[in-house]
Amino acid sequence: MPTSPLRTPARVGVAAAALLVAPWSVATAATCLAPPVDAQISRPFDAPPCPWCAGHRGVTYAVAPGTPVSAVAAGVVTFSGVVVDVRYVVVRHGDGLLATYGGLASTALQAGDAVVTGQLVGHSGVGLYFGLRTGPDTYIDPLALLGELVVPPYLVPTDGTARRPPPEPVLRCRPV
Description:
Layout: H1 9-18, E1 41-43, E2 59-61, E3 68-70, E4 75-83, E5 86-93, E6 98-106, E7 114-115, E8 120-133, E9 139-140, E10 148-150, E11 170-172
Antiparallel strand pairs: 1-2, 2-8, 3-8, 4-5, 4-7, 5-6, 6-8, 8-9, 10-11
């Protein structure tokens, strides 16, 4: 099977070098990230009281099986595989954040692949877990950095003429 141009050693080497940045902080974070899917959150972030305690270290989206899942930012895949019957992809972004996409039914990504913002990460299973962390055991609430896709207001004819399609959704960032 031919190697993807994104998986060539030179491309991954350049991407990996770009990821050698100062430790993550709110000041270096992107202002707003597009959500990985357009769906309702079925389970919110629940910070554990200690690194080994129970909690929900991300958010879970209520999605239909097979929903396309998009990368929230550019980076390099650090892990792609199955853990306890759940398929995960982890991407390290340029600002040092690690994004975890879990509950995937399928993915073509492998460790070392470079991804760009909006690229297909995979397709969801019965739900999609999405988490952000700044290190091995330091999780943050993704909603602090995720915007939401909204359809801007538009005029609808009232005289019986055919409706125009709505405009494309735009990313609206949450106030800081």
